[in-house]
C-alpha cells in the first residue's frame, strides 16, 4: 500500500509539472519504476498505459482553458503516434543510451536559447501567430514519439522546446497542444507494447496509482498555464530543459561527472534559473499591456490563417 501511495504522489507531481511546463511525466515516472527494479520495457508500458488517462484529462482541461491549437495537435500528434508505435513494437529493444547525450546537447542548446530569449527579450513578435507547417511538425512528431516510447519519456522534452524555439506559438498553447497530442502517442505506444511484450511485467495496480495522481493534477496544471504570464512560463520551460539535459549529460558515459561536480552544476543552474524567473516576472509587470497586445494580435493572425489583417487577400479558389 505504501508503494501505491508513493506512486500516486509521483503521478500527481509529475503531471503537475508536465501539464504546466509541457514535459516530465514520462521521465519522472519511468525513473521511479526503474529504480524499484522494473525492466525498461515494462516500465515504459506501465507509464504509457497510465498516460492514456492522464493525457485525456489533461487535454480536456487545456481545451477548457483555451490552451490548445487543434491544427498543431493534428499535425504533430498523428506522426507522433506512428513514431511511438514503431518504437514500442519493433525498436523497443534498441538502446538509446548512445544517442541520449547527443540529443541532450541539442535540447540543451534549445533550452539555453528559450531561457535567454524569453528572459531577456520577452515574447517573440515577428512570427507569433503564424501557422506551424506540417513539414516541420510531422518529422518532429515522429522523432519525439519514437524517443518517447523507447526511452520511457521524451514527447514533451523534444516537442515543447522545438515549437517554442520557432517563435510561432505562445507558451501556454505550446504546452497545451503538446499535452493534448500526447494522448495519441500514449495510445499508440500502449498498443505497440501490448503487441510486443503482452502484459508481462506490467502491474496494473501501479498503472492505476499513477493514473489517479495524474488525473488529480491535470486540471490544476492547465489552470496554472492559463494564468502564468507567458514570459515567465517561457523562462520556466527553458530552465527545466537546461536542468534535465544537463543532468543527462553529466551522468552519461561521455562525461560521467563526480557527485560533487554534478551538484555544483545543479546549484549554479538553480541560482541562474531563479534569477531569470524573477527578472521575467519583473519585466512582465513593467510591460504587461504590451505583452497582452502581442498575444491578442497573434491570436487575430492565427484566426486569419497566419496572414496579418493588413496583408490579407482574397484566397484563390
What is the element string, with H for helices and E for strands? HHHHHHHHHHHH
Query: How many distinct helices?
Result: 12
* Rg (CA only): 19 Å
State the helicity in percent bands: over 70%
- Which strand-content bin applies to the residues? under 5%
The total count of strands amounts to: 0
User: Which oligomeric state applies?
Assistant: single chain
Summed up, the domain count is: 1
Family: Belongs to the 4-toluene sulfonate uptake permease (TSUP) (TC 2.A.102) family.
Transmembrane segments: 72-94, 100-123, 181-198, 204-225, 232-250, 262-281
Subcellular location: Cell membrane; Membrane
Protein name: Probable membrane transporter protein
Structural notes for this entry:
The protein has 317 residues and is mainly α. It has one domain. Helix content is 78%, strand content 0%. Helix 3 packs antiparallel against helix 8, helix 3 packs parallel to helix 9 and helix 7 packs antiparallel against helix 8. Pfam families: TauE. This is Probable membrane transporter protein. InterPro entries: TM_pro_TauE-like (IPR002781), TSUP/Inactive_protease-like (IPR051598).
Keywords:
mainly alpha
Amino acid at each position: 500500500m505504501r508503494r501505491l501511495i508513493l506512486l500516486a504522489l509521483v503521478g500527481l507531481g509529475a503531471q503537475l509539472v508536465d501539464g504546466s511546463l509541457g514535459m516530465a511525466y514520462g521521465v519522472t515516472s519511468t525513473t521511479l519504476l526503474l529504480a524499484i527494479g522494473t525492466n525498461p520495457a515494462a516500465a515504459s508500458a506501465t507509464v504509457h498505459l497510465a498516460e492514456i488517462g492522464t493525457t485525456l484529462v489533461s487535454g480536456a482541461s487545456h481545451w477548457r482553458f483555451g490552451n490548445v491549437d487543434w491544427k498543431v495537435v493534428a499535425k504533430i500528434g498523428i506522426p507522433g503516434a506512428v513514431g511511438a508505435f514503431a518504437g514500442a513494437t519493433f525498436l523497443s529493444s534498441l538502446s538509446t543510451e548512445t544517442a541520449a547525450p547527443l540529443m541532450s546537447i541539442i535540447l540543451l542548446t534549445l533550452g539555453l536559447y528559450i531561457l535567454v530569449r524569453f528572459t531577456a527579450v520577452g515574447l517573440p513578435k515577428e512570427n507569433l501567430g503564424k501557422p506551424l507547417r506540417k513539414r516541420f511538425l510531422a518529422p518532429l512528431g515522429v522523432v519525439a514519439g519514437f524517443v518517447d516510447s523507447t526511452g520511457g519519456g521524451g514527447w514533451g522534452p523534444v516537442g515543447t522546446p522545438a515549437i517554442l524555439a520557432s517563435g510561432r506559438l505562445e507558451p501556454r498553447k505550446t504546452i497545451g497542444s503538446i499535452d493534448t497530442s500526447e494522448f495519441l502517442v500514449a495510445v499508440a505506444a500502449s498498443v505497440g507494447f501490448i503487441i510486443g511484450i503482452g502484459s508481462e511485467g506490467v502491474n496494473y495496480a501501479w498503472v492505476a496509482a499513477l493514473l489517479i495522481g495524474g488525473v488529480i493534477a491535470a486540471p490544476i496544471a492547465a489552470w496554472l498555464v492559463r494564468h502564468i504570464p507567458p514570459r515567465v512560463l517561457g523562462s520556466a520551460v527553458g530552465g527545466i530543459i537546461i536542468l534535465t539535459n544537463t543532468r543527462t549529460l553529466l551522468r552519461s558515459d561521455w562525461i560521467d561527472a563526480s557527485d560533487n561536480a554534478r551538484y555544483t552544476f545543479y546549484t549554479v543552474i538553480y541560482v541562474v534559473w531563479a534569477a531569470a524567473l524573477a527578472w521575467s516576472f519583473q519585466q512582465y509587470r513593467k510591460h504587461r499591456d504590451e505583452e497582452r497586445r502581442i498575444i491578442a494580435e497573434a491570436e487575430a493572425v492565427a484566426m486569419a490563417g497566419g496572414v496579418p489583417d493588413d496583408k490579407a487577400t482574397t484566397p484563390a479558389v
